Amino acid sequence: MDRIPEKLVINSKSNKIFISFDEIIYCKADGPYSIIKLVSGRSFQICRPLKHLDEQFVDTSLFRANRQYLVNLFHIEKCIRNRHYKIIMNNGESICVSVRNVPAMNKKIEELFIII
């Protein structure tokens, strides 16, 4: 039986940092690196491209919004649909969702949330 991971472990030279997935607001591509932004306001730069994280986080609440962002669906405050689909995160940051990813995002939202 596969377990859904509850934490991410970031290895550094001197220690391991354990981060609960519910603490992650988003992961952002930064060339060959990724930046993980937390609810606390802290950020971590890791030596992995966003594609690697996307492949690792399949069974989590993190979703690939566009080429640059993986967002935690539990930290979305609002979805705005006009010419472009945009999400506002609970820290106030705005992230565009690529048109091709909107249907998959809506499906994942339906799986995770009660919609009224």
Question: What attributes characterize this protein structure?
Answer:
three-stranded antiparallel β-sheet, 116 residues, globular, single chain, five-stranded antiparallel β-sheet, alpha+beta, 16% helix, OB fold (Dihydrolipoamide Acetyltransferase, E2P)
Task: Write the SSE topology.
Layout: E1 7-11, E2 16-20, E3 24-30, E4 33-38, E5 43-46, H1 50-56, E6 62-64, E7 69-72, E8 76-81, E9 85-89, E10 94-97, H2 102-112
Antiparallel strand pairs: 1-2, 3-4, 3-7, 4-5, 6-7, 8-9, 9-10
Q: What does this protein structure show overall?
A:
With 116 residues, the protein is of the alpha+beta class. The mean pLDDT is 92. The chain has 2 helices and 10 strands; from the N terminus they run βββββαβββββα.
Strand tally: 10
Which structural category do the helix and sheet elements fall into?
Answer: alpha+beta
- Average predicted confidence as pLDDT: 92
CATH homologous superfamily designation: LytTr DNA-binding domain
Pick out the low-confidence regions: none
CATH C-level class is Mainly Beta
| Share of residues in strands | 35-45%
Architecture in CATH? Answer: Beta Barrel
Strand-and-helix sequence, N→C? EEEEEHEEEEEH
First-residue to last-residue Cα separation:
33 Å
